[in-house]
Amino acid sequence: MDVHGRIREVLAETIKHDRGSAHQPLSEGDFVRALQRRGIIDDVMRDLHFTQVCHLLCLIFLGGKAFLEHLQDSEPLPGQVCPTFMLYLHFRNQRFRSKPVPCACEPDLKEGFLLEIHRDSFGDGSKMVDATAMLSMCDAVHLVLIKTDTSGETTLVTSYFLDWRIVLGSPSCKTCFAVEMMGVGSESKIPAGVLTVSLELFPPLQETLNTDIIVTQQSLERQRTAEKERLFLVYAKQWWREFLEIRPSHQSKLVKIFAQDENGVNRPVCSYVRVLRAGRLLENPRQAARFVSLLTHERAPVVGGGGKQEQWCTLMAFLCRGKGDCEDHATLLCSLLLGFGLDAYVCVGTKVNSGPHTWVLTRGTDGSITFWESLTAHRYLHRPIDPDAPPLVPQPKPSSPYRTVGCVFNHQTLLANCQPSDAVELCVFDFQNQSRWKAMSEEALKSVCAPGSTASLPPLPPLCAPSLDPAEVSNHLELEMRFLVSEHRKDLDVATVWDDHLSYLLSSALSAYEMERCTGVSCGNEEFQDAVRRAVPDGHTFKGFPIHFLHRNARRAFATCLRSPFCEEIVCCRGDHVRLAVRVRVFVYPENACAVWMMFACKYRSVL
């Protein structure tokens, strides 16, 4: 609505016209009356919809400074494409994002957000939350700053938890302060930049709290959390010693109890998995697996050599960035499958020919075990080999790409594999059998991993509905691809004639490919083949080349396509009566994750 811009205009006018020659200071009431005259207050109140009586936290960013990585950046010219910063927020099931601003040493991150502060229990929804209840809410505002470069690649700049309760002790429930944002991963101890933040509570409290009370509450929460974490660490060490005493070879097994997040904080692995329901955004477990596989796989960046830098991510940082390592994919998929009512676990082990890896396992009520590869959405039915069976008894062939498994975990269970061999093909996943799996105490895990158990546990963000219009982005990308094909053929001194009807027919094939990726079932191919046969006259040849991408960068996609000799043959086709076709279909999922399908085709008269 650009409320800020409209208010600034009115204020400038009011100062100019109402002060006159007397130079009288204008009061807040004068400004409010001016805004009412213009109808701005009515517009704002009409467009704000709040579900229940609640306090509102107005969080305004007043700009950034000291983002020293961009000290040398020059001012972007008007219309010039440049890297951008975008700020994402999550607070008590509400998510927001800022408009993109050009990256700079002092980025123009000036934007306001209204956050609802409501009760947890639905029965008291009609009552306003009082100061004491707000003080006991330890949910921080999670801020995630993402940098997007000119090619569309995203980088996580900072992930920060803002304790907003300082506003409860500020005069008139208003305060303004600077927040030093630290870097992530190996740079988590180095400042990334500073954001100036203004907080205001509406309606203000009749009586603000004493600052000492707020400080004491925060201190008590920290002490309680530290004590719970200390006790869990003592228990985890004892549990690990017992596990090593079972068999000396257990020392080399991949058993993961703690993992570092983007801020360098060590957290129990079970805290990375929660029961996540996607509302109406995802229809079934297989569609959830497809969605997770569309988030780009990228290992945590490492400065210099030294192999893989392990960094797990909070769910908010992973979703905002739209890419992460296999651990981020596996914990998200496991959370979604738990939400769909499946008995799901994350497996930590190794993959054939590629070292450490994580994937997801589900157990059916009939005892069947299914592996889910979170990076591809492939599913594998697991049938273990019986090493004690007679030599002539046929054994199942390994169907999955996984080699060893050291442990499995979900939001309330962690089990270490204590079978003689950790080879996946020999592994029996009967978790109740204590001679095969050593379980951690569920009570101990609950004390540090259950939602709300500690103040340091990041809150679970909801998934966001896509904001992209599939038809619009498909059309835009298709026009770009047509232009690139025409230009490429112009360089080869070949004319380009498009066949719109043939292009349209390719849609059904692309739709069938995506459905197959989602469900594992192929359908609609007969109709497509029949339509193509009818569209291609006798004596003509048809060639088609489908390809799949996870990004919407036309030039990058076209360069990839030309690397395939089949596609190059179609794009550069010469001959008699050549007609070209291209169809692009973008399937949009939550968080604007996209499956991009393209098909290039040509038909031409065959000349012997």
Question: How would you summarize this macromolecular structure in one to three sentences?
Answer:
With 608 residues, the chain is of the alpha+beta class.
Radius of gyration, in Å, reads 29 Å
N-C termini distance: 65 Å
Largest sheet: 7 strands, antiparallel
Give the tally of β-strands: 23
Mean pLDDT: 89
Tell me what portion of residues adopts beta-strand conformation.
25-35%
- In CATH terms, what is the architecture of the largest domain? Roll
Name of the CATH class of the largest domain: Alpha Beta
Number of helices: 14
Dominant shape: flat
What is the chains' assembly state?
single chain
Helical fraction = 25-40%
CATH fold-level assignment of the largest domain: C8orf32 fold
Total discrete domains:
4
Derived from helix and strand composition plus strand pairing, the structural class reads alpha+beta
Q: Can you list the strand order of the major beta sheet?
A: 17-16-15-14-18-19-20
Task: List the uncertain runs.
Answer: none
Function: Centrosomal protein involved in regulation of centriole duplication. Required to limit centriole duplication to once per cell cycle by preventing centriole reduplication.
Domain CEP76 N-terminal: 1-48
Domain Centrosomal protein of 76 kDa C-terminal: 468-605
Family: Belongs to the CEP76 family.
